[in-house]
Amino acid sequence: MTVAGTLRTLLETTLASSAAVLAVLALRGVLRAGFGARIAYAAWSLVPATLLAVLLPAASEEAAPAPVLAFIAEALPRTPASEGGPTLDTAAWWLAAWLMGVVATGLWFAARQRGFSRALGHVRPRDDGMHQAESVAGLPAAVGLWRPRIVVPVDFDVRYSEEERVLLREHEHQHLAHGDLRLNGLMALLRCVFWFNPLLHFAARHFRQDQELACDQRVMARHPASRRAYGEAMLKTQLAMQPWPLGCHWNSSHPLKERILMLKHPLPSFRRRLSGSACVLALTLTGGYAAWAAQPNEDAAAQLPAGSIHVKAVLRLNGGEPRTTTFVTEPGASILLTDSADGHEWAVDATVKQGMGNRPDVLVLEASIKRDGQVVAKPRLGVLSGQSGTIRTNSDEHVDGKPEAFELQVTMTAAEAGT
């Protein structure tokens, strides 16, 4: 993938993930009230689903040797490019800045995780299968991505009653059984990749809150008569100010009051949870399909023979409906586009070339625009492969009191080497 292609993919995934996060933030309260905390937590699956959908190949669009006219509606913004526009060097600097941000964010998470691990002191195994640390802050907790384990504080046997210890162990076991540690690792990875998106960092806090509420409900489903003891165990557990990125722990950032109040609510019935699961599945499938369908189509160009160029031209006359023409051409071959508006005939006689000066990666469109057979402009447009540029001209003639307007947006993509 080219530098420009990488940045374009990053933009598309950022838009898709942001839309998914906003949808979940808007619906999580409704889902929790109607179907329970476990369903609200499951709704976060919409975020990775939309990201995967964007990364899937777009719907194929056959490239035709002759113009094929059709109405279109762009679903994602394109970056205009011209001879005086962004260069490959600029794109490379943006990519380098993004990579530095990814590394810096990853190091920050690693430092926080390492700081917590070192603060535990010596961790020894217990007879009950759990592990006991020399400290109390942030414990009990489930830790470890590859070899997960439950770590309890040094005063675990003193601070909690026998019933409370059983509930605490069940809570952390539920985190392990449902893969919450790996999901937290995935969230940390997404925050590294999209470090520049504050919405994702904001969503991470609510994701962890829904995770803890869902775990509470799973524990109550297995120990329905232990609500009071469970609440007392919460009160006895110290609340840490900043959770580490890759653990599941009782001292989460979720308000303790809300967790205790949730214990008073009756558990949702199986039918309600089933209905909620169906709603989340429908939401995930719909969101994933919408993200996939909104992708700009570039498959046709990727499958062209080496040396050919895929051209997508969108022509709009006098602010009317846009028309798109897609076709395949060879460097130096002549291209002819024609259309009419308000009684006038327009024609674009153009040639596509590869390379401009010392920039062999630039595709150049040299065009002659004619109105009723008379040349009105001879523009020259240069873009990087896969990017789009726009040509606009205005004539002295007026239609309904406005100057005639000609707009041609062109996206040119060179076939990949070796295809």
UniProtKB/TrEMBL annotation:
Keywords: Membrane, Transmembrane, Transmembrane helix. It holds the Pfam family Peptidase_M56. The chain crosses the membrane at residues 6-27, 39-59, 91-111. Residues 9-263 form the Peptidase M56 domain. InterPro entries: Beta-lactam_resp_regulator (IPR052173), Peptidase_M56 (IPR008756). This is Peptidase M56 domain-containing protein.
